[in-house]
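pinging the channel bc i need a second pair of eyes. not urgent but kinda urgent?? the chain im working w is below, pasted from the shared doc
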Amino acid sequence: MRYCRYLLLVLVAVGMLAGHYVLAQSTVSQSAASFPPLEVWKAEVLAGDPVTLRAFYSTDPPAQVMANGVKTSVDADISFWLGLKARSIELQTVAVLDRPREPVLSSKLR
């Protein structure tokens, strides 16, 4: 009887965690699909319209684009997306499980 309680407790806990995971995944998918600016951006990349894509970048303050740790220009970024000549775009949500450690700030008092 004692093992039955433990088994039931474990099954309930697993069910709760699985339900939470499924709910979180569906919420993320729905929110990404219902973000109108992202949908417009996807359509403009597929259409290959550099003028409309440029409107997505800030001019005041100027946009700063980093790709693989290298600072590039807005024009280079637009050229990258249009250079793909994409026929479709599928968005996938990526979860980061391991957070990077924050730098330790140390100071020496003299």
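so The chain has a mean pLDDT of 76. and The chain has four helices and two strands. — does that match what u expected or am i reading it wrong
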